[in-house]
Amino acid sequence: MKTIAIIPARGGSKRLPEKNIKLLGDIPLLAHSILYAKQNSTIIDEVYVSTNDDRITEIALEYGAKVIDRPESLSGDLEPTVSALKHVLESIEEVENVILLQPTNPLRPENLLKDAFNLYLQGNHNSLFTVSRNHQKFGKINEGKFVPFNYEIGQRSQDLEPLFFENGLLYITKSEKILNDIIISEDAFPFEINHIFASVDIDTQEDFDYAQYLYKNK
């Protein structure tokens, strides 16, 4: 059973230019996910970075990942992540499991992958992804009026019906699903993790500054 990690890291970010190579701490953002994968070498056989960018390629190779050159046709802003994963699988020898590590989620609890992968195997799941509990009161604005969505006015936040969000920290999927354009299958196991790192998803400078703060202090 071969398991690989894939880190999709294209160049050309609009909201935060060159974000995948910005230094978080003293190493590039991308390198955090590569090193996390390598720290879990008992699970991950090989680490691949999918990119269309020469500088990202240099960093990936420097930190010990293998690189799959992503064609520009799969590198647009609107291109789904699964297309990059599928392209990697079509470029290498057959594997059974794919672990998706997004470079924009660089901070992960140390034992997260070990715990998640054990659940994935024990449950014979087609896919697994991490989620976190939401504790906010959401509503919609309809014709200038606020309409509560997940609560009633006056209800305490601790009494809200549990809702969860996809936090992006980790995805595990059978390769056959990805080859059919699926990362999260209909029967995917939602692995709940309530950790401050689940609040980090870097798209803007403010997100990056917050990640820097957590990296230095947590």
Describe it.
- With 218 residues, the protein is α/β, with parallel strands linked by helices.
- It has a single domain, classed as Spore Coat Polysaccharide Biosynthesis Protein SpsA, Chain A.
- Helix content is 27%, strand content 26%.
- The protein is built from six helices and eleven strands.
- The protein has helices at residues 29-39, 54-62, 81-91, 112-122, 175-178, 205-217, and strands at 3-8, 23-24, 27-28, 46-51, 66-69, 97-100, 127-134, 139-142, 145-148, 163-174, 189-192.
- It has a seven-stranded mixed β-sheet, sandwiched between helices. It has a two-stranded antiparallel ribbon with strand order 2-3. The chain has a two-stranded antiparallel sheet with strand order 8-9.
- Strand 8 (139-142) and strand 9 (145-148) form a beta hairpin.
- It is globular.
- 33% of the residues are buried.
- The mean pLDDT is 95.
